[in-house]
Write a structure and sequence with these properties.
Chain lengths: 389, 518
C-alpha cells in the first residue's frame, strides 16, 4: 500500500522547497497510519540511494514517468525531482512536495521517499537549473531521465538540458518513444559523453532478453560454429503506425554486427517499403575467431519502431542452416526457437523470454554505474548503416 | 572476480548479466524421490532454466529405489515445481525443461543399475548435446555416499580423461550434501572414499549458508570497504556473537536429529562457515583456493578445548514444552520418534578464542538452538567502549555491527546519538541496510546460486576437505565430553520459546557481557 503525505502534493514556495520537505517528514512521522503495532510510533525509514530527476514537456509523459518512479521506490529508494518543462508559453513556476511511503510487509520496514514536482514555462524555464541543483542529494549519484526528445537546438529548453545533464552522472532516454529515435540517441550520446555513467536507453534495455536468447541459442558447439558462417540476418519488428525508424531492430543489428566484427559496406544501405536493407562485411578482426574476412552478410529489417518480434539468422557453407527465433505474445514469456538444417528435419524448443516493464528497465539502468559500451558500439554501427541518421 | 575455467566465452555474452553460461550438462541426482529433490533441487534447476542461466539442453537423471517411468517422474516434478496454478507460459517452459528429465530405478548397491545410468547418460549426450559433462548430486542419506561413489567408480561413470571433443574435455563434478561425517574419523573416511574416485577439484561439499547473499557480503563488506578493516582486530573489537536460532522443533527429522544434535546439525558446518568469514585474513585473490586457505587458517587458530575446560566454555540444552508464537508446543522428548530419555542437545552456547595476532583475547560466543523465540541468524561484532565516559546521562552502549543473515538479509550499525532537548540525553540508534529495500532484481536462492557455481566450476562457496576435517577436530573434544563423560554431564532443559537455559546466560555474563536481545 502506498501512503502519500499529504494526500496530494502540497504547493510550496520554490525558494523554500528543502525546508518544506523537512517539515513534511516531521508531519509524516506523526501520522497515525504510519504508527507501529499497538499504535506506537515506529519511526519512518528514510532511505535514499540516489537523486532521480525526470523531465518532460508533456503532462501525460510526466505522469507516466511519475508512475514508473513511484513503483520503483521499494527497489530504488530515492529523492525524485519531476520537472514539467515549458509546455506552455506562460511564465509559470510552481513547486509541490510530497512524501510517499511503501507499506511495511513481510517484516520489512516501511520505506519512505520524498518527491518534488516543478512546473516551469516561458521565461521561468531559465530558473529551473538553479532550483534543481541545490536539491540534488550530496554525494549520491544523479540520474537524469529525459522523457522525450532531448532538446538540442538553441533555446531555453536546450539550456535546461545542458545544465541538468552537466549536473548528472547519467542520462537516461527511451529512444523508441521519441519522434526521431536515431537523432535523439545520437544527440543524447554526445551530450552524455562526459558523464561517468554515460547514456542509457530503455529501448536498449528492452533488447536484453533478445541478446540473452540469441547468445544462449548460439552457445552449443555446433550452433557457435554457425556464427562464423552467417550470410543472412532478418529482423522483424512490430509496426506502430509511426514513420519513425525501427530503432529496436536497428540496435539489435548494431549489437550483432559489433560483437561479430562486421563492418557496414558504405553506400549499401537502402530503404524500401516497410524496411531497411544493408550489407555488412566481416572485418577479420572479429571477436569470433573463425570468421572469414571479406565475406558479406545481408541484413534486412522489416517493420516499424515497435518491439522486435522475430529474428532469423542463416549460415551458409558446407553445412547450411537457419535459426529462427519467434517471440510469442508480449505476455507469453518465451521464445520459440526453430533450427532448420540444410538437411534433415527442423528442431524446435522454447527459451524463456521475460519482457521487462519500464520499472524493471529503469531499475536495471540504475544498477549500473559505468557507461554502456554495448549501446555505444551498436549505435555507432547503426549510424553508419542508416542513411540520413 | 570469479574463477573462470578455460571454457569458450561467447562473443555475444559481453554486457549480459552472465558473462559465461555453463556448458550443457547432465545432473544425476541420487535420491531423486526425496524431499531435497522435490523442495530444493528441482525448483532450483527449473528456475535457472527459466531465468536463462543454464542452457535448455541441461538435463536431469533422477536415480532412486522406487520404480517409476520417465513420465511419472516428470509429472511428480511438475507437481513439486509448478503447483496447480502455473501460468500457460510456465507450463510451456516446463515442457521444454521436462523433455530433459529422465529416471533410472535402482538399488544403490546394484551394479546393474549403474549400467542403466550409464546407458541413459550416453543416450542423453547423444540426443541433447550434453557433451559428456556431468554433475553427480548425492542427495541421499549419508550412509549411501560410500556405496554410490564406489559404484560410480566401478561402473566406468567417472572417466577422468575420456571423450576428447572439439579439443575440450568433458567435465565431471560431484556435489555432496552435509553431514560430512559425524566426527574426525568418519569425515576422514568419507573424504578418502570420495578422493579414491574423484579429485578434490571435482568435489563440491555444499553448505547452503554460503549461497546466501549476506554471507557472501561479509567478504565484500570487510574487504571492499576501507573504513572497517583497520578496526577489525583485538584493539577495537570487544567480542563477536554468532547466533543461529530456529523457532521450529525437530519436526519430521527426529531419526536424523537423534544421532546428530545441534553440534553436528548446525555448529560444525553453518556456524563454522560464519566464524571463518568474519575472522579470516584478506585472501591474496578472490579465488576458490585463496579464500579457502584463509578460512581454514581460522579454524586452525581456534584454541582446542582440553576436556577439563569444556564445562566452562560450553553449555548444552534441550527444549522442554513451552509456547511459540502463542501456540503450545511439546518438548523434545515428547516429539515423535524421539527416545523418552534422549540426551540429544537441541541447544548449545559456547565460547571460543582464536589464537592469532588479529584476534588474541577476543571471545567469540556462539549459540544455536531449536524452539527459540524466533528464527534468526546473525553475526554481531561488538566494538569496545569509548575510552572516556564524557556524557553521564543515558546510554553508553558500545558500537555494534550486525550482519543479519536471515530472515531479513542486511547489515546494521548501532551508534549513540543525542536525543533532542535541552539536556544531554544519549540514546542508541541503528543505521540499517536491508537487501530487500536497497537492491532491485530477482536474487538467486542459495541452491540456485550454488548449483550454477558448480556448473561453472567455481568452488569458492563450497567447503574443502581440510576445512571439514579441521572443524571436526575443533569440536571433537566437546562432543567427546558430552557423549563419553562418566558420569554424563548434566542436561539443561529450557522452555520452548525462550533463549535457552540459564547456564547459557551465565556463560557470557560471567565475562561481563550479555547476549544480544534479538
Amino acid at each position: 500500500m502506498v501512503i502519500r503525505i499529504p494526500d496530494s502534493p502540497a504547493p510550496v514556495d520554490v525558494r523554500a522547497i528543502e525546508r518544506e520537505v523537512n517539515r513534511l517528514w516531521q508531519a509524516a512521522s506523526e501520522r497515525p497510519e504510519l504508527a507501529g503495532a499497538g499504535g506506537a510510533p515506529e519511526g519512518l525509514t528514510r532511505i535514499c540511494m540516489l537523486t532521480l530527476v525526470a523531465v518532460a514537456r508533456d503532462a501525460s509523459t510526466l505522469s507516466r514517468l511519475t508512475d514508473v518512479i513511484q513503483r520503483l521506490t521499494p527497489r530504488y529508494p530515492s529523492r525524485s525531482i519531476l520537472v514539467r518543462c515549458g509546455a506552455t508559453g506562460s511564465d509559470e513556476l510552481g513547486a509541490w512536495v510530497s512524501v510517499h511511503c511503501e507499506g511495511a510487509d513481510r517484516g520489512r520496514p516501511r520505506v519512505c521517499c520524498e518527491q518534488i514536482v516543478l512546473a516551469a514555462g516561458g521565461r521561468a524555464l531559465s530558473r529551473v537549473p538553479g532550483i534543481v541543483l541545490p536539491l540534488l542529494v550530496p554525494d549520491l549519484p544523479v540520474y537524469l531521465w529525459w522523457g522525450e526528445d532531448v532538446p538540442m537546438a538553441e533555446g531555453a529548453a536546450a539550456e535546461v538540458a545542458r545544465h541538468l545533464v552537466a549536473a548528472s552522472d547519467c542520462l537516461v532516454v527511451d529512444s523508441a518513444t521519441t519522434a526521431r529515435p536515431l537523432t535523439t540517441l545520437a544527440a543524447a550520446a554526445a551530450l552524455a559523453a562526459p558523464l561517468t555513467g554515460g547514456l542509457r536507453d530503455l529501448t536498449w534495455g528492452r533488447l536484453t532478453p533478445w541478446r540473452e536468447v540469441i547468445a544462449q541459442s548460439f552457445e552449443p558447439a555446433p550452433m557457435a560454429a554457425m556464427l562464423d558462417r552467417l550470410e543472412r540476418v532478418a529482423v522483424a519488428a512490430d509496426a506502430t503506425g509511426s514513420e519513425a525508424d525501427p530503432i529496436e531492430a536497428l540496435l539489435l543489428i548494431g549489437w550483432l554486427a559489433s560483437r561479430l566484427g562486421w563492418e557496414v559496406l558504405q553506400g549499401s544501405a537502402e530503404r524500401h517499403a516497410g524496411g531497411i536493407r544493408v550489407l555488412c562485411r566481416r572485418s577479420g578482426a572479429a571477436a569470433s575467431p573463425g570468421s572469414q574476412p571479406g565475406e558479406t552478410v545481408s541484413v534486412e529489417i522489416r517493420g516499424g519502431p515497435g518491439p522486435v518480434s522475430a529474428v532469423e539468422l542463416c549460415a551458409g557453407g558446407p553445412d547450411p542452416a537457419c535459426a529462427v527465433l519467434t517471440r510469442g505474445r508480449r505476455d507469453d514469456g518465451y521464445v520459440e526457437v526453430e533450427i532448420r538444417p540444410g538437411r534433415g528435419r527442423p528442431r524446435r524448443h522454447t527459451i524463456p523470454f521475460a519482457v521487462p516493464d519500464d520499472v524493471a528497465l529503469l531499475a536495471a539502468e540504475l544498477d549500473l554505474v559505468t557507461p554502456s559500451r554495448g549501446l555505444a558500439r551498436a549505435l555507432d554501427l547503426v549510424r553508419r548503416a542508416v542513411p540520413g541518421a | 572476480m570469479r574463477v573462470i575455467s578455460p571454457a569458450t566465452v561467447s562473443p555475444l555474452r559481453e554486457g549480459l548479466r552472465l558473462r559465461r553460461m555453463p556448458e550443457p550438462c547432465v545432473v544425476v541426482i541420487f535420491g531423486a524421490t526425496g524431499d531435497l529433490t522435490h523442495r530444493k533441487l528441482m525448483p532450483a534447476l527449473y528456475t535457472l532454466m527459466r531465468l536463462g542461466m543454464i542452457p535448455p539442453a541441461c538435463s536431469v537423471i533422477g536415480v532412486a529405489r522406487r520404480p517409476k517411468t520417465d513420465e511419472q517422474f516428470r509429472e511428480e516434478m511438475a507437481a513439486a515445481v509448478l503447483g496447480p496454478h502455473a501460468s500457460p507460459a510456465d507450463r510451456a517452459l516446463w515442457e521444454t525443461f521436462a523433455q530433459g528429465l529422465f529416471y533410472v530405478q535402482t538399488e544403490f548397491r546394484d551394479p546393474e543399475g549403474y549400467a542403466r545410468v550409464r546407458a541413459t547418460l550416453e543416450r542423453v549426450d547423444r540426443e541433447r548435446g550434453t557433451g559428456g559433462n556431468r554433475v553427480y548430486y548425492l542427495a541421499t542419506a549419508p550412509e549411501f555416499y560410500g556405496e554410490i561413489v564406489h559404484n560410480l567408480g566401478q561402473s566406468g561413470l567417472i572417466e577422468r580423461h575420456a571423450g576428447q571433443r572439439d579439443g575440450r574435455r568433458p567435465w565431471l563434478r560431484v556435489i555432496v550434501e552435509k553431514p560430512f561425517g559425524r566426527d574426525v574419523r568418519s569425515a576422514e573416511e568419507l573424504n578418502r572414499t570420495l578422493l579414491r574416485v574423484f579429485r578434490e577439484s571435482q568435489v563440491y561439499r555444499i553448505d547452503h549458508y554460503l549461497g546466501k547473499e549476506t554471507v557472501q557480503n561479509i567478504l565484500v563488506f570487510r574487504f571492499a570497504n576501507g573504513i572497517f578493516e583497520p578496526l577489525w582486530n583485538q584493539h577495537y573489537i570487544d567480542h563477536v556473537q554468532i547466533t543461529v536460532a530456529e523457532s521450529i522443533g525437530v519436526e519430521d527429522r527426529a531419526g536424523y536429529y537423534e544421532t546428530a544434535g545441534v553440534i553436528r546439525d548446525i555448529v560444525q558446518n553453518h556456524m563454522m562457515q560464519l566464524l571463518t568469514l568474519v575472522a579470516m585474513e584478506p585472501p591474496v585473490a578472490f579465488e576458490a583456493d585463496e579464500v579457502r586457505n584463509e578460512k581454514v587458517k581460522v579454524i586452525r587458530a581456534a584454541r582446542r578445548l582440553a576436556p577439563d575446560d569444556v564445562p566452562a566454555s560450553v553449555v548444552f540444552g534441550q527444549y522442554g514444552p513451552g509456547a511459540i508464537g502463542g501456540e503450545e508446543v511439546p518438548g523434545y522428548r515428547q516429539e515423535p520418534r524421539v527416545a523418552a530419555g534422549s540426551r540429544t542437545p537441541t541447544f548449545v552456547a559456547m565460547r571460543l578464542f582464536l589464537d592469532n595476532w588479529r584476534w588474541a583475547g577476543v571471545p567469540f560466543y556462539l549459540r544455536s538452538g531449536k524452539r527459540l523465540p524466533k528464527r534468526v541468524t546473525e553475526i554481531a561484532v561488538q566494538f569496545k567502549q569509548a575510552p572516556l565516559p564524557l556524557f553521564h546521562d543515558g546510554a553508553r552502549d558500545p558500537n555494534l555491527l550486525a550482519f543479519n543473515i536471515q530472515p531479513d538479509e542486511g547489515i546494521s550499525l548501532r551508534f549513540v546519538a543525542k536525543a533532542p532537548g535541552t539536556t544531554m540525553r544519549l540514546r542508541p540508534v541503528n543505521m540499517g541496510f536491508q537487501y530487500g529495500t536497497a537492491f532491485a532484481g530477482e536474487e538467486l536462492s542459495a541452491y540456485e546460486r550454488l548449483l550454477l557455481d558448480c556448473m561453472l566450476g567455481d568452488q569458492t562457496l563450497f567447503t574443502r576437505r581440510d576445512e571439514v576435517e579441521e572443524a571436526w577436530a575443533l569440536l571433537e573434544p566437546v562432543l567427546t565430553w558430552w557423549e563419553r563423560s562418566s558420569p554424563p554431564p548434566e542436561l539443561q532443559t529450557y522452555e520452548a520459546g525462550t533463549w535457552g537455559p540459564p547456564a547459557a546466560w551465565s556463560l557470557i555474563e560471567r565475562d561481563g557481557r550479555r547476549w544480544r536481545r534479538l
